[in-house]
Every structure is written in structure tokens, then in C-alpha cells.
């Protein structure tokens, strides 16, 4: 009944996740017996197969800390100076308690109040970012009468005399006790004389309501593991040095077409200069692209071209591949060399994650799925009554204006061509809440397939025990909600 993956993916079609469906297999274990522990790359282990994309509307410090706390990892984007990127890595590693403050803002003393006054407090640091030295804070409730006026924050801030400082690695229980004892609304977390986070009472309550966190992804330094993206220019060698000093645990060569002489030379350089550091190459979608990078020495492969929600590469350049086919093909060769595969882009539900993992990937990399969360960079806005956050492609004109065009090897071109768009996604709440639910749904999918782990799923697929079919357009409609006048889309 159905087809083996080998047969289904050898017929000349480029299939997306939605095109294919698994036939159910045999269940002989409970959902909780499913383990999704995996590897990001040869030497980096994760307890959940989730990776945050190196995009400037997805992965900065709070996302990186939260993903690591969940047992996944984030790759910090490189659309900023190397010292800013290194500072994001350092900051992520210092966010032991992975709380992204929901109603406070950080600003520099030169900022004007109206431009940052959304939220309950404005914390003023020397650099306007974290980590940095705390200069004071503004309670926005004090400034009601200043609404609309352009005043410097510096002139209105309270000093730090009454501020409660606690060490950066205090856990939730200790922070809660201090807030209670001092009758304070917030505490400032400090490391080496710099503020690394501010935790307010309502965020402590919020975190307590989320599923319990496990040990998380911790490196040999005892801190969160954090990945970082770089390019393949000469200047990226210096960037890498900064990142390694800041504690980056793995590096991703960020390119839409990774099978290039530039990337191969960079892989060789990194493997020679930093033998302890895992390097992930890509992106690739074919067996021969993958073979080249494996030969150059990569520790992981990132798969996907044009499958991302904000991507226009396939339309602009006529190059790419359906993501289900790409993941299956690249994984089949990578597995022979022990190189883990990251299925990058095109994930919009837990079923897509099941498909990516069973088709051979070891992890999924997500942009839009994580954008719009409390942990994603940027402030929420309102559009037609909906709370939204910006989400943009790194190949959009807006992102490339900040330097990300090297991802498309366009740094020598005089005319810039967009390969992505700028958009927005709905508020999704905290990743600390919705990722555990998503993982539970993925485990149920594995159970339906009789696979209790990633290696067992891969073996069932390789041996032809797992069977698949292509869904017709009508079958895809039938597989979604249909025939209702209205319904509420709520999964947990
Ligand atoms: P999702 O579907 O998770 O995709 O939102 C995220 C992935 O998309 C890639 N990416 C781009 N691809 N133009 C592209 O063709 C772009 O501007 C762009 N920005 C990001 C990237 O691989 C990311 O992980």
C-alpha cells in the first residue's frame, strides 16, 4: 500500500510538505515514550529539534536564550556590525532566566521619550542595549502630562538608588522571593557590573504559567549554547573571531546558494583555524551541492531554497526545489556521512515538522513560526485591531540596506534585486509556551507512524516500511478544515 520514499521521490516531481502524506503505521508505545532528542551538527546535541532562523526579526538575545532553555538553539543573525552581533551572543548567554520582558523598553539617554514610551518602564542604559551599564529608569506613568512632547529621557529618569540588583544566574524562585521581600515591582539582573536583564513581577507570573522547562541546551562553559551566522567575505573572518570570543558555540555560513567556491574556502579556513567549532554549510537542495560541502568538511547542512514564507528566490531566479523533495534527497546523502540536516523554511504547522524530520532532517529551522513571539526582536504594533510584529526576509530591500545582501552574494553588484519581502505576523505569545505544545503534537505524529525517535523514523523510512502518497489538490482541501461557515483556530 502506498509508496516507499525512494520510489515517491524518484518520479521527477518537486514536492512540498503539503503535497505528501504518510500512511499511518503501528502503535506499540505511548506518546511520552517518543524522544525527539537530536543533533544540530556533528558535535552539538539538542533535546528538541527546533532552530531559530538567523534573521533580524527572529533571532537576537531573548530568542536565543528561550530556544536554548527549551532544548533547541537559535542562530544569531549577522545583519549588524560584528561587535553588535558578538554583544547579542554574550547577552543571550547571560539570560539564564529566559524572560523576555513584555512591558519594558531599553533606551539610551539621548533617546526622546515619545519614541520609546510604549510599555510600563523605560530602562536607560549607556548603550541603549543589553548588556550595558544602567543609568536610571523612567516609569511611563510619571510622564502622562508629557504625552506628545519631545523630551530627552535623561531629564526625566529616576536614579538607581532604590533599584534591587541580583546576580545574573538567580533562578525564578530566588527572584520571586526578592520581589516579595522588597515589595518591588522589578529586579535588575547584573553580571560583571552590567545589566543583563530586568525582570518585572508580571513576567514572573507569566513564566510560572508555562510548561516546565528541562535542562536546556548548555555548553561545556555551563552557559546557553548559541549559534551565529556569518558570510563568506574576508571581513567575516574577523567577525568570526569576535563571535568565538563572545562564546558562540556553532557557526552557520548564511547563503541562499551554498555550493560556491567562497563557501568551500570558508569551510576549510574555519575547520583549520577553529577545529573545535562546528560549521554548518548551505543552503543546498541537491545531492551534488551537498556532496561538495560534505567533502569540504561541514559538520551540518542547511537545506532549502525558496521554501521560506518570505522568499521570492524561486520566482526571481527560477532556482530552488520543493522542500519535501530537497530534505529527502539531501538527507539521503548526508546520512551516509553522519552529517545532520537542518530543514530550513516552509514550516507553518506541527505536521510540517513531522514531515521534515521523518524525511531525514535532524532539526527544523523556523522563521515565520517564531516571528511575532514575545522573544522575537521588535515592538508589537496594531493593524485592523490585530497585534502584529514585523517579519522580513533577509533578502528584502529593507534588510539588504543594512548589509544582508552578501547572503545572496550580491555585494559586488551595483543594482540590488530583492529575493524576499517585508511583512508582519500575528502575535503568538511566548515561544516558551507554544513550542512545548508544538513538540507534543510532533510526538503524536511520530507515535502514529510507530517511530519512537528520530533514528527509528529514519530507519523506517529508509527500509521502505513507512509508506507515503502524493495528495491531490482535492485531498489537500479535504485534509484541512472545510465546509464550515466559521470556526476558531485554536490548538491548545
Ligand atoms: P520560514 O518559512 O520559516 O523561512 O519563514 C525562513 C527561512 O527563509 C530563508 N530566508 C529567505 N529566503 N529570501 C529568501 O529567498 C529572503 O529574503 C529570505 N530571508 C530568509 C532563510 O533560509 C530562513 O531560515
From TrEMBL:
Signal peptide: none annotated. It catalyses: IMP + NAD(+) + H2O = XMP + NADH + H(+). Pathway: Purine metabolism; XMP biosynthesis via de novo pathway; XMP from IMP: step 1/1. Its cofactor is K(+). GO terms for molecular function: IMP dehydrogenase activity; metal ion binding; nucleotide binding. Mycophenolic acid (MPA) is a non-competitive inhibitor that prevents formation of the closed enzyme conformation by binding to the same site as the amobile flap. In contrast, mizoribine monophosphate (MZP) is a competitive inhibitor that induces the closed conformation. MPA is a potent inhibitor of mammalian IMPDHs but a poor inhibitor of the bacterial enzymes. MZP is a more potent inhibitor of bacterial IMPDH. IMP binds at residues 309, 344-346, 367-368, 391-395, 419. InterPro entries: Aldolase_TIM (IPR013785), CBS_dom_sf (IPR046342), IMP_DH (IPR005990), IMP_DH/GMP_Rdtase_CS (IPR015875), IMP_DH_GMPRt (IPR001093). GO terms for cellular component: cytoplasm. Gene3D superfamilies: Aldolase class I. GO terms for biological process: GMP biosynthetic process; GTP biosynthetic process. Belongs to the IMPDH/GMPR family. Catalyzes the conversion of inosine 5'-phosphate (IMP) to xanthosine 5'-phosphate (XMP), the first committed and rate-limiting step in the de novo synthesis of guanine nucleotides, and therefore plays an important role in the regulation of cell growth. This is Inosine-5'-monophosphate dehydrogenase. The gene is LOC111287170.
Amino acid at each position: 500500500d502506498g509508496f516507499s520514499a525512494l520510489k515517491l521521490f524518484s518520479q521527477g516531481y518537486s514536492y512540498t510538505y503539503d503535497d505528501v502524506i504518510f500512511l499511518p503505521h503501528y502503535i506499540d508505545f505511548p506518546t511520552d515514550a517518543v524522544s525527539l532528542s537530536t543533533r544540530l551538527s556533528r558535535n552539538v546535541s539538542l533535546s528538541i529539534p527546533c532552530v531559530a532562523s538567523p534573521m533580524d526579526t527572529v533571532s537576537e538575545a531573548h530568542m536565543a536564550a528561550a530556544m536554548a532553555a527549551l532544548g533547541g538553539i537559535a542562530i544569531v543573525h549577522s545583519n549588524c556590525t560584528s561587535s553588535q552581533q558578538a554583544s547579542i551572543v554574550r547577552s543571550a548567554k547571560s539570560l539564564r532566566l529566559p524572560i523576555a520582558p513584555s512591558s519594558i523598553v531599553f533606551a539610551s539617554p539621548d533617546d526622546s521619550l515619545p519614541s520609546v514610551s510604549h510599555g510600563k518602564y523605560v530602562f536607560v542604559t549607556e548603550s541603549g542595549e543589553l548588556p550595558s551599564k544602567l543609568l536610571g529608569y523612567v516609569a511611563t506613568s510619571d510622564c502622562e502630562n508629557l504625552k506628545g512632547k519631545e523630551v530627552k529621557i535623561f531629564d526625566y529618569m529616576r536614579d538607581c538608588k532604590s533599584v534591587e540588583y541580583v546576580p545574573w544566574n538567580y533562578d525564578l524562585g530566588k527572584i520571586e522571593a526578592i520581589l516579595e521581600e522588597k515589595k518591588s515591582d522589578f529586579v535588575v539582573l547584573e553580571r560583571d557590573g552590567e545589566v543583563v536583564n530586568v525582570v518585572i513581577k508580571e513576567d514572573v507570573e507569566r513564566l510560572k504559567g508555562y510548561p516546565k522547562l528541562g535542562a536546556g541546551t548548555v555548553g561545556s562553559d555551563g552557559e546557553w549554547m548559541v549559534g551565529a551566522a556569518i558570510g563568506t567575505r574576508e571581513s567575516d573572518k574577523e567577525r568570526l573571531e569576535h563571535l568565538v570570543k563572545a562564546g558562540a558555540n556553532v557557526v552557520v555560513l548564511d547563503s541562499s546558494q551554498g555550493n560556491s567556491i567562497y563557501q568551500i574556502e570558508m569551510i576549510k579556513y574555519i575547520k583549520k583555524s577553529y577545529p573545535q567549532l562546528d560549521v554548518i554549510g548551505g543552503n543546498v537542495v541537491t545531492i551534488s551541492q551537498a556532496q561538495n560541502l560534505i567533502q569540504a568538511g561541514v559538520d551540518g547542512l542547511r537545506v532549502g531554497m525558496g521554501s521560506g514564507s518570505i522568499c521570492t528566490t524561486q520566482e526571481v531566479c527560477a532556482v530552488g526545489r520543493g522542500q519535501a523533495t530537497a530534505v529527502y534527497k539531501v538527507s539521503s546523502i548526508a546520512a551516509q556521512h553522519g552529517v545532520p540536516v537542518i530543514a530550513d523554511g516552509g514550516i507553518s504547522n506541527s505536521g510540517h515538522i513531522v514531515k521534515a524530520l521523518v524525511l531525514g532532517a535532524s532539526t527544523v529551522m523556523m522563521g515565520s513560526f517564531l516571528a511575532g513571539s514575545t522573544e522575537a526582536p521588535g515592538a508589537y504594533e496594531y493593524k485592523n485591531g490585530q497585534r502584529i510584529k514585523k517579519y522580513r526576509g533577509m533578502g528584502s530591500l529593507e534588510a539588504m540596506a543594512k548589509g544582508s545582501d552578501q547572503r545572496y552574494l550580491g555585494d559586488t553588484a551595483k543594482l540590488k534585486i530583492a529575493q524576499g519581502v517585508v511583512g508582519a505576523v500575528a502575535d503568538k505569545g511566548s515561544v516558551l509556551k507554544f513550542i512545548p505544545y508544538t513538540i507534543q503534537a510532533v510526538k503524536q505524529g511520530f507515535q502514529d507512524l510507530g517511530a519512537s525517535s528520530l533514528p527509528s523514523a529514519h530507519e523506517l523510512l529508509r527500509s521502505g516500511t513507512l509508506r507515503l502518497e502524493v495528495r491531490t489538490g482535492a485531498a489537500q482541501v479535504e485534509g484541512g478544515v472545510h465546509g464550515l461557515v466559521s470556526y476558531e483556530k485554536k490548538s491548545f
